[in-house]
């Protein structure tokens, strides 16, 4: 009787999630399909690329309300999937989302304008790591001049491989900004689909979890696909790195993985974490495979950086001590009066915190793996090298995202691409604290950087968003930190003694 009663209660709950996700995705696509607004920069004449489908614009207040609502409903839908175990997404729905994304204009930041500019500078034979958009050709270039503040004075911060891809989009788009950006959007959509395809092959039996956390996650879809961020392309290369080791055994797989890893870290340097994750995941022939993995990565990345020249990461060095407004570390910076020594101290403390948070995430994942083995031995977590490596990516990347002084919501794309591999406890309602902690972090950061631009807002909307970013978000993130630490402590104290966990 109790079993039947639980099914009766469960049915309405299970019907809520599709509705939440439908409204969330619809609101996000609405923002991208309308005319330029406070979240979506004007891309100029459409050329042969798709134009605006909905011939009206949204006010800054309407855009903020739509995005905040979409993120909140989307986070609730993902949380229900974590708690109730979501279902696999039908293939036509995935295709529909991909097509819809290709018809939108990117929003949530002006980063895609910078990508187009750096690609244009490279395609025209100049050095995007030395030339700033504001000074390029007297500020008259039809693509480069579109870069918005505060990035107009900044040369490229991206690696050589990402910049090569941006250069290809510039060659295809010519002097038309919309065409160039649309070609970049196609790269991002392909990356999103590639990650799903690869995960389904590395994590058999976890198709529903992959779709719940990745494909049908409105926050990931917004920041990665609709935002057209380079992080999505780098995340696809990271997942392909792990797939190479999973698909091809021994040293050949390690060499191919090293090549993909080099392309990932040559897009965005933080993606070098995949090398450490694979080294930790290797169990057999660890020394030989690790040497080939790292060696091939060094050769390929070295060749790309030699081609790009010595100034590739000049900007990275200058921005390494930045502290975001939404970060709890910002309070320490402001209360101390700032200064180089304070920023150095914050960087050091943040590095220690990242290690601590990664340890907490690992303990929780380990605890879930043990509980799964004890409760249902036949449902033990996947233990292949790909699953182990992705778990380490989620743990290490999640610790970094939580603790980093300067972090934006799209930086979390790497973590969510790997999160489906993390073990979860068995049983409806058990959920995963790892999933929920990282979801809370992503939701808070999404609300803090909903519009992602410093232009186009009314004073009232600017006051509202900045108040949330500088006052609410830091407190909320501190609470997330506390939730993670206390959960890890409790998990360590109650962990059953069943031997070493599988897949940890």
Care to describe what's here?
- There is one protein chain.
- The protein is mainly alpha-helical.
- The chain has one domain (about 1-495).
- The chain contains 19 helices and no strands.
- It has helices spanning about 1-35, 60-85, 90-100, 110-125, 160-175, 175-200, 205-215, 220-225, 230-245, 250-265, 275-280, 285-310, 315-320, 330-335, 340-375, 385-405, 415-420, 435-450, 460-495.
- Helix 18 (about 435-450) runs antiparallel to helix 19 (about 460-495).
- Mean pLDDT is about 90; it is low at about 1-10 and about 495-504.
- This is DUF2029 domain-containing protein.
- Keywords: Membrane, Transmembrane, Transmembrane helix.
Residue runs with pLDDT of under 50 for 5 or more positions:
1-10, 497-504
Total DSSP E strands: 0
SSE order in H/E notation? Answer: HHHHHHHHHHHHHHHHHHH
The whole-number mean of residue pLDDT values reads: 90
Class per helix and strand makeup: mainly alpha
Q: Strand content of the residues, in percent?
A: under 5%
- Percent of residues in helices comes to 55-70%
Number of discrete helical segments: 19
- Total domain modules: 1
């Amino acid at each position: 009787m109790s079993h039947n009663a639980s099914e009766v209660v469960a049915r309405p709950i299970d019907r809520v999630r599709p509705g939440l996700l439908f409204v969330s995705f619809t609101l996000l696509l609405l923002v991208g399909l309308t005319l330029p607004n406070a979240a979506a920069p004007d891309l100029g004449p459409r050329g042969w690329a798709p134009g605006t489908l909905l011939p009206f614009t949204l006010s800054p207040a309407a855009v903020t309300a739509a995005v905040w609502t979409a993120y909140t409903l989307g986070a609730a839908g993902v949380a229900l999937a974590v708690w109730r175990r979501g279902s696999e997404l039908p293939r036509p729905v995935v295709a529909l989302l991909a097509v819809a994304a290709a018809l939108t204009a990117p929003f949530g930041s002006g980063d895609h304008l910078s990508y187009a500019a750096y690609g244009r500078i490279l395609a025209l034979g100049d050095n995007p790591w030395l030339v700033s958009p504001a000074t390029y050709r007297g500020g008259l270039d039809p693509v480069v001049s579109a870069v918005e503040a505060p990035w107009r004075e900044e040369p490229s911060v991206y690696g050589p491989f990402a910049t090569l891809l941006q250069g290809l989009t510039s060659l295809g788009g010519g002097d038309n900004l919309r065409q160039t950006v649309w070609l970049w959007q196609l790269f991002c959509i392909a990356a999103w689909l590639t990650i799903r395809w690869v995960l389904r092959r590395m994590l058999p039996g976890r198709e529903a979890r992959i779709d719940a956390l990745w494909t049908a996650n409105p926050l990931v879809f917004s920041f990665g696909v609709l935002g057209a961020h380079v992080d999505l392309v780098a995340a696809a290369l990271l997942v392909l790195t792990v797939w190479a080791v999973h698909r091809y055994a021994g040293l050949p797989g390690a060499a191919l993985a090293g090549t993909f890893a080099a392309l990932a870290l040559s897009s965005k340097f933080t993606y070098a974490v995949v090398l450490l994750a694979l080294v930790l995941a290797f169990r057999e022939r660890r020394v030989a495979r690790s040497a080939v993995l790292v060696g091939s990565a060094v050769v390929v990345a070295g060749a790309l950086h030699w081609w790009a020249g010595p100034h590739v990461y000049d900007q990275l060095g200058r921005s390494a001590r930045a502290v975001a407004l939404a970060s709890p570390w910002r309070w320490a910076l402001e209360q101390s009066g700032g200064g180089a020594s304070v920023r150095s101290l914050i960087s050091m403390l943040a590095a220690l915190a990242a290690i601590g948070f990664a340890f907490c995430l690992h303990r929780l994942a380990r605890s879930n793996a043990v509980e799964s083995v004890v409760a249902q031995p036949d449902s033990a977590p996947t233990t292949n090298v790909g699953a182990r490596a992705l778990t380490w990516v989620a743990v290490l990347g999640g610790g970094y995202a939580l603790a980093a002084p300067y972090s934006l919501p799209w930086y979390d794309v790497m973590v969510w691409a790997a999160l489906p591999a993390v073990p979860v406890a068995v049983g409806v309602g058990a959920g995963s604290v790892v999933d929920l902690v990282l979801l809370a972090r992503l939701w808070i950061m999404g609300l803090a950087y909903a519009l992602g631009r410093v232009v186009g807002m009314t004073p009232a909307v600017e006051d509202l968003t900045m108040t949330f970013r500088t006052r609410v978000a830091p407190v909320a993130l501190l609470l997330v930190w506390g939730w993670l630490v206390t959960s890890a402590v409790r998990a360590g104290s109650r962990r059953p003694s069943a031997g070493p966990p599988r897949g940890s």
